[in-house]
Amino acid sequence: MVGVLGFTGGQKEEAKPLGLVAEPPATLERQPFVSIHLPLYNEKKVVERILTACADIEYPNFEIIVADDSTDETTEIIKRFISDRNLESKIKLIHRADRTGFKGGALAEALKQTDTQAEYIMVLDADFIPYPDTIEQFLKYFQLAENRKLKTESQRIAVVQGYQWHVLNKSENWITRGVRSEFSGSYVVERAGTELYGGLKMIAGSVYMIKRKILERIGWGTSITEDFQLTLKLYEAGYKVCYTPYIQTPSECVSTIRRLIRQRMRWAEGHTFNIKKCLAAYSFPQT
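Given the sequence above, the corresponding structure tokens read:
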């Protein structure tokens, strides 16, 4: 993937933007506790897949918190999975009777139940499949930031966002092929370019890790696009998001026109709401 993305030439590794360093430290200097948060809503077709992938992650210090708002069989599938694999000590299930605050509300409940040892929180949606070394890969970029001479960079980086690799159903139909191409352009070109020139990088809702203390300080919002809301709140507080295309997690694309339209309308509504909210709170200079 390094050669395909083409970010290895030119600058020395230590001079590159953090997210475009293709080879972070080979080993971790320490293994901090990580809490994986899975916000779920009626995901009966894929819930066992995401739980299996997370439970099989090869890292010694982590927990899984399932923030479940489901009204279908998803909840029972989760309970059965935990029982069958004897994972009561590894997986916490939180089930809400309503969807107050939407995904942000569910994640806020997960944050309340997070182990006090946790230093980092990794968020994944149901239609993703993390690799066994995903936690370790995220932590290596935080370690790289801490080890660089520019300590201010380390202090300001609150989030490392990975590449949502929409390949699991890319050949299903013309819609998935189109969405796959769109996301490839966004993650390989647009977001990598933004990392290169140091612009604002948006948290993409899944496949990211955030420092727990900063998340507690900022807090989850209740917008329908909680990821964009968190992004704006972090930058307003002086923090940064690092994007790297080298942490990739396979996922699915929406596969019908109806789902695609609903997804994009939700994004448009949520983003517009958050922009209006920010502008309303900003004091423009008098002319």
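The longest strand covers residues 240-251. Try to locate this feature in the token string yourself.
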